[in-house]
Amino acid sequence: MRVIDERGAQHRDLLRALAPFAGKARVIGITGTPGAGKSTLVDQLVACARAQGLRVGVVAVDPTSPYTGGAILGDRIRMQRHFLDEGVFIRSLATRGHLGGLSRSAADVITVLDAAGFDLIIVETVGVGQDELEIAQLAATTVVVVTPGLGDDIQAIKAGILEIADVFAVNKADRPGADAAVADLQQMIALGGALAHAGSRPAATGHGHGGVAAIMRPETGGLTERGWEPLIIKTVASQGAGVDELLAACTAHAKALDESGEGAQRAAQRREQRFVTLLSDLLLEEVTARQTASYREALRATRAGETDAYSAAIDLLGRALRPAEAAS
Ligand SMILES: Nc1nc2c(ncn2[C@@H]2O[C@H](COP(=O)(O)OP(=O)(O)OP(=O)(O)O)[C@@H](O)[C@H]2O)c(=O)[nH]1
Ligand SMILES: [Mg+2]
Hints:
Number of strands: 9
Bound molecules: guanosine-5'-triphosphate, magnesium ion
CATH class of the largest domain: Alpha Beta
Structural class: alpha/beta
Strand order of the largest sheet: 3-2-4-1-5-6-9
Number of domains: 2
């Protein structure tokens, strides 16, 4: 795993060798506001999945935000009962110093675990930034964890989290207000669904309905005639309540995706995204690692303000793609 963190040619070769063996694992993303109980839920989900005989990998992405401290230690403590279990592998990824490369690191760790034969891979991220949204999208199924007293969370949910949720866990349901939170979510899904989903997931569900009929409809998500709508599951992670139901909801989602063909479509999208990101990373690495005279000159001229960044980058790329200089 250290090689995975360090990047470089060795890293690349290893990933390349492993990649053909990956692609079988189910990936579930768990996101939500800091302290919502994500790690506690993951710990319980691991126990459930182990009871079903599945090998489980966990990737915990530490928050970038100043909201929480010592997340690595916290996650370890919350999941430590699985440490001696060979069917469980837990890995924390630090966010600091990755500068946007975090989703690539997470994707790489997923690939390694997948190739190593883990059946289920759970990725925990704090749903606060763009990075985190990207990481959640590495998953086939995304669970958004909210807590009663949704009012506080509502901004965070509106800021893009609603549209990535396949399943909602209303955790800390032992506290007052859990049913109100469920009702709030149902209403948000009914009202906001049409807007939030528009265009974000092409074949998703045709959330083009809405209005009173949508608010009145009795079902609370799952596979409807309009396609998949987020299931809402109440959980008390600290006591393990509702966790079986949560895992079952994720399984139902995976099944619905497979049957509609949307799963394959999303997987294709993820592969495309991965390819494009990797290509741009590699291009940048190539150009900067070579430190050609023209690279150094472009850098100098840009710093000195003698040329603008656009001209410098476009000209340099033009040169870098020319074989003559690439060989120099
Ligand atoms: N009352 C109650 N407390 C819970 C429940 N689930 C988790 N907690 C507590 O909530 C606190 C935060 O739990 P974590 O699992 O660390 O939450 P998290 O979302 O992983 O937190 P970060 O990773 O720091 O964002 C801990 O003190 C848990 O014991 C629950 O269902 N009910
Ligand atoms: Mg956590």
